[in-house]
Design a protein that fits this description.
alpha/beta; 18% strand; binds S-adenosylmethionine; 424 residues; Rossmann fold; single chain; 7-stranded mixed beta sheet; 12 helices; 4-stranded antiparallel beta sheet
Length: 424
């Protein structure tokens, strides 16, 4: 771990209202932009209970309610949610829309019509604060491009607002590929009680805080940073093959000869050479491919293969994003098909089988692909929260924390999702 800068902090010792009242309660959270509930799934595995959820997409809300039936769910547009209907909780989460931030999206930025809803969420925190119901912790999640947008100005403005609301924070980048065979690099902003950082914080170099986060720190050394002690990121042990449905040759999902020749015709030239070479050598291998909208030989589309054993980042069809395919070469024969919704679900780490409470999927195949493309990778969220907020909460032992945090004496109730195992 290295250190840069001094990061002198001012005014960081204010007490957090209501701290004492949190003792001996269970860990509760309110979630905004709840979608189908994969943040919920990750938190439930850690013993958290949702006391309020909001999302205005009726299809996703149906999946959420089927999986987490006891949670008071608001279908309203977040801009019309009456803040007094949001109960007190220890944590508020916002996996807010990425469409204006993502490189594949509209690029309207942090004040865009969708991604800009994060400000509404932050207004909610301010309202909760005024009502004496401010959550101690906040978790924001979005695409990695949030770190670069407008030269970092978007991130800086979010951090400034969190500081104004009385939070200190850590900013980390975690890629789902450390947990499952999906490349999905995401930023998490973890807001913690400001009185955790009573003294200057030195930047803690770590794989989860690479140069973009360091740059953010260097631009804002006087903001209330609180660097959590993350362990090394794990190494994924789930091969792509374990994610895929074992479909027989006759399954209608496989491309017919006509579509197969279409696939070959649009394959990136270098990838085509490599694939032909592999097939000629009789090697059996499975890849993922994405179809991108790109001009080549006067065509609009191109297929790119991945040779690293990962699926590309799951996406929704919004914003010109790509569809994902499974490509299998076996004994000189090639089979290609679209990635199934159920496979997208597994790539996000939900347990569909071998569990007392398998995650229920509903809607059309397109709905499922859409919902999981927009969701989060469950074990990545679990890892982030476990090693930040949960660690702080568990640190009633002062040897483990620089503060006198009393923190919760909780006894996590086994949640209905807590026994979930990930994959067979
Ligand atoms: C990135 S997704 C979050 C997905 C979620 N983490 C999950 O596990 O499914 C953003 C969510 O914001 C919701 N959303 C977009 N605009 C909204 C609005 N005006 N009010 C409430 N929710 C909204 C979308 O329906 C979508 O589910």
């Amino acid at each position: 771990m290295g250190e840069v800068g001094s990061g002198a902090l001012q005014n960081c010792s204010g007490a957090v209202p209501g701290r004492g009242a949190l003792k001996s309660m269970e860990k509760t959270f309110v979630e905004f932009f709840a979608g189908i509930g994969l943040i919920h799934q990750a938190l439930a595995e850690l013993g958290w209970s949702a006391v309020f959820a909001n999302d205005n997409d009726p299809k996703k809300a149906r999946v959420y309610r089927e999986n987490f039936p006891g949670v008071p769910f608001s279908h309203l547009d977040i801009r019309t949610v009456p803040w007094d209907s949001v109960p007190k909780a220890h944590l508020a989460t916002a996996s807010f829309p990425c469409i204006d931030i993502s490189q594949a999206g509209y690029r309207e930025g942090i004040h865009g019509s969708d991604s800009g809803l994060v400000w509404t969420f932050l207004d909610c925190l301010a309202a909760l604060d005024s009502a004496g119901k401010k959550p101690e912790f906040v978790l924001l999640e979005n695409v990695a491009n949030l770190l670069s947008l407008h030269g970092g100005a978007a991130l800086d403005s979010l951090l400034g607002r969190l500081a104004d609301l009385g939070y200190a924070f850590d900013v980390v980048q975690v890629d789902a590929k450390h947990f499952l065979p999906q490349s999905r690099n995401r930023v998490f902003i973890i807001g913690v009680p400001r009185d955790l950082c009573q003294k200057a914080q030195f930047f803690k170099d770590h794989h989860v805080r690479r140069y973009k986060v360091r740059e953010a720190y260097m631009r804002n050394p006087d903001l209330p940073w609180y660097f959590c002690d993350f362990p090394e990121l794990p190494k994924n042990s789930v091969p792509l093959q374990r994610i895929l449905e074992p479909l027989g040759d006759a399954a209608p999902e496989w491309f017919n000869p006509e579509r197969l020749s279409y696939f070959w015709s649009l394959l990136e030239i270098d990838h085509e050479k490599r694939l032909r070479h592999l097939m000629d050598s009789g090697v059996s291998a499975t890849f993922t491919a994405v179809r991108r909208l790109r001009r080549r030989r006067k065509r609009e589309q191109i297929f790119n293969l991945r040779f690293d054993g990962l699926a590309s980042c799951l996406r929704t069809p919004k914003g010109g994003s790509s569809t994902q395919y499974v490509v299998q070469a076996e004994h000189g024969k090639l089979r290609v098909r679209r990635l199934l919704g159920i496979e997208a679900a597994r790539l996000q780490g939900v347990c569909l089988e071998s569990s007392a409470h398998p995650f229920k999927l509903s809607g059309t195949e397109q709905d499922i692909r859409f919902a999981f493309g927009d969701a989060v990778c469950v074990p990545a969220v679990n890892w982030v929260v476990r090693n930040s907020i949960d660690t702080i909460l568990h640190a009633s032992d002062t040897r483990r924390t620089p503060t006198q945090l009393p923190l919760l004496e909780f006894n996590p109730k086994p949640s209905h999702a807590s026994n979930a195992t990930r994959l067979p």
